[in-house]
Specification:
Blueprint (H helix, E strand, L loop, with lengths): L1 E4 L3 E4 L1 H22 L2 H9 L5 H16 L1 H8 L1 H21 L7 H23 L7 H53 L13 H9 L2 H31 L3 H11 L1 H5 L1 H12 L2 H18 L7 H27 L7 H7 L2 H19 L4 H12 L1 H6 L6 H6 L1
Antiparallel strand pairs: 1-2
Helix pairs in contact: 1-6, 1-7, 3-6, 3-16, 4-5, 5-6, 5-7, 7-10, 7-12, 7-14, 9-14, 9-16, 9-17, 10-14, 12-14, 13-14, 13-17, 16-17
């Protein structure tokens, strides 16, 4: 194992990074099979299209869990937290196999969101245990690229399973697949550095983070990206179904839409490490994603090529923001800052709580597509913190210094 000395303590282990990234690929595929049809499941189970409230409840629980997650890690360890999250998810999926879509199934799906969210953060924390700042963009780029490569194949499979076997087929597949992932993770992820700075109370963590202005700025950008994901994942499939697309067509659209996450994230991570830092690309990506999202409001066509093109452009922006967000943030912290990582990942539950809560109210009085105007406004607001970010020095800039 090679030791990297920096302003804080790090351990770079390339074999572990590749292993964790491969598991991310497996988990990405698993998540994608259900996530894009989850809003339709809520709608089928409850008889309403205004399903935002269920996501709001789920992410309120996720938010409080994340703020206290470092306490569970201190007791169980980082690897065991991942194992428990996957096992808990398997138990929930088993229950969903046994029940019909109904109000009784709604709490189970909420618990499923809780399990997958915990699983994602535990993977982040484990990966940071084997990372180093100077290659953070490359490590995070590899991790996200493989995760999203797995994610790429999910929508098409879920559309096929849904048309042939309904949601029962989706849950049966997820049960078998996640059981295999659990066994693999149990055998391969065992020894992880479980040391971290002393446990702070929630108020202490918030104070600690608020004193770091650039962490708060990148946190807001992370919040905006998660706000985008929240409403696009929920309302894009509902909107496409409402204007007349079949599930098979939606599966094709979403599969092509997700290609930027596979094509651009790893190269962007390398570019940020070697050439420019993250700031300039972040600003460009925010503008691109915001304008492309705005155009969705004005499209009512059933032209698949048009929808693929627009959604593809939104995901170019999202893919770049995602890798640059992680690359920037993880260069500012180290392996012991578990509480800061937990806080940073609360951007997702906070975004989902606000996005689903606000959109649920808006949709009571306006058409469903008004959600895309809301997303555009929030996305473009990220320009303010992005412009004020203190950029990380790239390898090229460090050589010049």
């Amino acid at each position: 194992m090679k030791k990297i000395y920096s302003s804080h303590e790090e351990n770079l282990n390339k074999k572990k990074v590749k292993l964790i990234s491969f598991i991310a690929f497996l988990l990405g595929f698993s998540e994608a099979v259900f996530i894009y049809v989850m809003s339709s499941y809520f709608s089928l189970a409850t008889g309403t299209e205004n399903v935002g409230i269920f996501y709001t409840i789920a992410y309120v629980l996720v938010f409080f869990l994340f703020l206290n997650l470092h306490k569970f890690i201190k007791i169980s360890g980082k690897a065991n937290l991942l194992h428990f999250a996957i096992l808990f998810k398997i138990i929930i999926i088993t229950s969903l196999v046994l029940v019909e879509p109904s109000w009784f199934a709604v709490p189970l799906v909420i618990l499923y969101i809780l399990a997958t969210s915990t699983q994602a953060v535990s993977m982040d924390i484990i990966l940071e245990s084997f990372s180093a700042d100077k290659v953070s963009g490359r490590i995070r780029g590899l991790f996200l690229t493989l995760f999203n490569l797995g994610f790429l194949f999910g929508p098409m499979l879920s559309a096929l399973l849904l048309e042939k076997f309904n949601f029962y087929g989706i849950f049966c597949f997820l049960l078998i697949y996640n059981s295999l992932i659990f066994v693999f993770a149990l055998l391969t992820i065992r020894k992880v550095n479980d040391n971290f700075h002393r446990t702070l109370k929630i108020i202490g963590i918030i104070r600690k983070v608020f004193h770091k202005k650039n962490i708060m700025r990148i946190y807001y950008i992370a919040f905006v990206l998660d706000f985008f994901y929240a409403l696009m994942v929920i309302y894009t499939p509902l909107h496409l179904r409402a204007i007349g697309f079949e599930w098979s067509q939606i599966g094709l659209i979403f599969t092509i839409m997700l290609l930027p996450f596979v094509l651009f994230q790893y190269p962007a991570g390398i570019y940020a490490d070697k050439e420019s830092g993250e700031k300039e690309l972040l600003i460009f990506s925010i503008i691109l994603m915001g304008l492309a999202t705005l155009s969705i409001y004005f499209i009512s066509s059933l032209n698949i090529v048009l929808w693929v093109s627009v959604l593809f452009i939104t995901r170019i922006g999202a893919a770049l923001i995602e890798i640059l967000r992680d690359s920037y943030f993880y260069k500012k912290i180290d392996v012991y800052d578990v509480d800061v990582i937990d806080f940073f990942r609360t951007s997702k539950p906070v975004a989902y709580i606000l996005a689903t809560g606000i959109s649920s109210i808006i949709i009571l009085f306006m058409p469903l597509k008004a959600a895309f105007i809301l997303v555009t406004i929030i996305v473009l607001s990220a320009l303010f913190p992005a412009l004020k970010l203190r950029d990380n020095k790239s390898e090229k800039e460090l050589r010049r210094a």
